[in-house]
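Notebook B, p. 112. Complex prediction, attempt 2.
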Amino acid sequence: MSNEQLDQLRNELDKVNLDLLSLINKRGELVQQIGEVKEKHGMNRFDPVREREMLNHILQEHDGPFEYSTVEHLFKEIFKMALELQEDDHSKALLV
Amino acid sequence: MSNEQLDQLRNELDKVNLDLLSLINKRGELVQQIGEVKEKHGMNRFDPVREREMLNHILQEHDGPFEYSTVEHLFKEIFKMALELQEDDHSKALLV
């Protein structure tokens, strides 16, 4: 089935998907850098207060088609990804 | 504790969080538009083949600190969000 409008919207969606991927990876790199700085200063890597502050900041700015609870759920998943990454780095550091 | 480097990295992280939020909402709006076009043409809104293609495209382009399985998990969550949105719209349409 040929539908120009649908094809155009799908192309835009593909672009948004790749932009999201790029930002997710950029976020991962930033979290790794933050982990290194914290480690250097003997700070605890996981900071639930800072995580709650980030989430509140995000929800304050939210203005879109999704429910707040849906956005909160997604960002908790994104935060969890970063935590896994830090744990990996730490294990690797201990093994070397 | 004052740490300029940490503050700077956290500011960057906050910016990335808001960019992610903005893209997630843009994605939601695109999915709503796609749903409308599909409805107009009597097409099924949920298309598992197209979803798999999107996911493969994303994974092909992935080049970052996260595991492929982690990226796949996250995007499945993002896709699921969009599906919920379409179901909402549909219910609302039926109620009017």
